[in-house]
Amino acid sequence: MITKSRFRGALYIVLYAILVLLPIIILLLGPKFRDRPTLLDLSVSFAFIGLAIMALQFISSARLKELNKPFGIDLVYHFHRQTGIASFLLVFSHPILLFILDSRYLRLLNIFTAPLRAQMGMGAILLLIGVVWMAEWRQKLKIPYWFWKIWHGILASVMIPMALVHILLAGNYIDLPWKRAIWIGYSILFTLTLVYTRIVYPLRLINRPFEVKEIKEERGSVWTVIMEPFMHNGFSFLPGQFGWLTAWRTPFSDTEHPFSLASSAERKDSVEMSIKNLGPYTARIQTLKPGDKVFIDAPYGYFSIDRYPDAEKLVLISGGIGITPVISMMRTLADRGYKRPITLFYSNQEWETVTFREEIEELSKQLNLKVIYVIERPPENWQGESGFLNAAILDKYLDKEWKTKNSEVFLCGPPPMMAAVGKALIKVGYDERHVHSEEFALV
Which residue among 155, 165, 196, 352 is least enclosed by CB atoms within 10 Å? Predict the structure, then answer.
C-alpha cells in the first residue's frame, strides 16, 4: 500500500511541476523578438509562474481525497501555504522588475488613468497582498477562522480572474492561438475546481447528514459528540484520521472545524469526536442536543497505525487533547484483539484533567499496553513522571528492543510539544522515518 501511495505521490508531483513550468514554455516557444529586453522576459516569466501556482492553489486546498492520500492533508496544507508565499513573491517581482527596467511603467500605478490591462494587474496584486497578509497574520490579529476562511476564498476567487484578464489583454506573450488556449485552460481548471468545492461537494455533504445521539462530558473540559449516519451508511476511516465538522449551519456556510475521529474504526454504526473547549466554536459543542443534524466531511489524514500493519511494537505519544486520534487507535486495536506490545506516553498539565483516564485503564487490561503519564503540575504524593516529556523519560521506558526498525511511533499534541518530543525521539535513537506526527493546528 505504501509503495503504491508513493508512486501516486511522485506522479502528482511531476504533474504539478509540469503545470507550474508550462507558462515558461509558452513564453519561450514561438516567435523571437530580438529587441525585447531580457529583464522584461524575466519579469513576465515570474508573473506567469506565480499565476500558475495561484491557480493550482485551489486544487491543493480543495480536499480532493485521492490527491491528498499520498501525502496527508496536513502536509498538503503546509505545501499550500509555502507555495502561496512563493507565488506572492514571484508575482510581486513582476511590477518591481518593470519599474527597474523603465521608470515610465510607474505611470501605470495611477489606476484612474492606466489602461484596463494595468488596472486588472494592479488590482490582482493588491488582492494577493490581502490574501497573504490575512493568512500570515490571522492568528496574531485574532481574526476568527470562519471570517478569515470566507474572505480568503472571496479575495482569491476574484484575484485569479483579474490576473488572467490582465494576461489576455496584455497579449504580448500569448500572441498565438495555442498560447491563449493554454491560459484559457488554466481558467477552466480554476473555474471547475471552484464549482466543485463551493457547490458540488457541499451538495454531496448536505445529502449525507449525521444525527447527534449523545453529548458526553469528559475530563479536561472535553465533550464527546456521538453521531449516527442519517439515512445513509456513513463512511469508513482509518484509526487516527480526522474530519471537518459543521454544526448549526449547512456545508455551504464555511463554519466547519477539523476534529479527530475518536471512535473505533471497527464500529460502523456511529462516529465520535471528542472536542476540547478552546474557543467560541468549541465552547458551543456542549449545546448540541440529541436529534440535531450535523455534517461531517471525512476521512482525512495520513496519521494512522493501519498504514504500518507489520509494526511489531507501537509507541503512542500524546499531549492534552492530542489523545483523540490515539484513543481511536487503542479502541480499534482492542476491538481487533491486538496482542502486540504498545507503550503510551500521555502528557497533561494536571492529573484531574487527564481525558479518558478511566477508559485507558480499562484498555490496558484488554491490550498489551503500558501507560506512562507525565504530569506538568502533579498532585501531592504523585508517584509517576512529572514536568515535560523529554529524552530522559523516553529512554527510561523504551529499551533497545523498542528502538528498532520494527517499532513505529505516533505523536500528536500541541505544536511546541511535538517539536520538542520529536527531537527527543531522535536523540534517544529513533529513526525519523519511523516517527509519525499529526499537525495539531491545521487552522
Answer: 352
pLDDT tens-digit map of 88-141 = 999 999 999 999 999 999 999 988 899 999 999 999 999 999 999 988 888 888
Q: Quote the distance between the C-alpha of residue 313 and its chain's center.
A: 28
Q: Which residues partner with 344 through β-bridges?
A: 316, 371
Give SS3 for 204: helix
Q: How far is the C-alpha of 297 from the C-alpha of 87, rounded, in Å? A: 29
End-to-end CA distance of the chain: 29
Distance of CA 28 to the CA centre of its chain: 36
Phi, psi of 219 (to 5 degrees): -65, 155
Nearest 5°: the CA angle 278, 284, 289 is 140
Q: How confident is the model at residue 179 (pLDDT cuts 50, 70, 90)?
A: confident
Region 316-326: what's the mean pLDDT? 96
- Cβ partners under 8 Å of residue 203, min gap 6: none
DSSP symbols for 271-304? EEEEEE--SHHHHTGGG--TT-EEEEEEEE-S--
Contacts of 137 (CB under 8 A, 6+ apart): 143
| Chain centre distance of CA 3 | 23
One-letter amino acid identity for 168?
A: L
pTM of the model: 0.84
CB 436 within 8 A of CB 421: no
Distances (CA, A) of 352 to 119, 220, 372: 60, 7, 15
Burial of 306 (0-12, 13-18, 19+ CB in 10 A): middle
Encode pLDDT of 235-261 as tens digits. 999 999 999 999 999 998 878 889 999
Q: Could you tell me where the beta strands, DSSP code E, fall in 305-368? A: 313-319, 342-348
Residues in Cβ contact with 408 at an 8 Å cutoff, skipping those fewer than 6 apart: 305, 308, 311, 313, 314, 315, 434, 436
Q: Which of 8, 19, 9, 17 is closest to 190 using CA atoms? A: 19
Q: What are φ and ψ of residue 208, in 5° steps?
A: -135, 65
Taking the C-alpha atoms of residue 262 and residue 216, their distance in angstroms, rounded to an integer, is 13
User: And the C-alpha cell for 248?
Assistant: 448549526
Return the C-alpha cell found at 11: 506522479
d(CA 306, CA 8): 19
Question: What are φ and ψ of residue 25, in 5° steps?
Answer: -65, -40
Residue pointed to by grid coordinates 529513526:
431
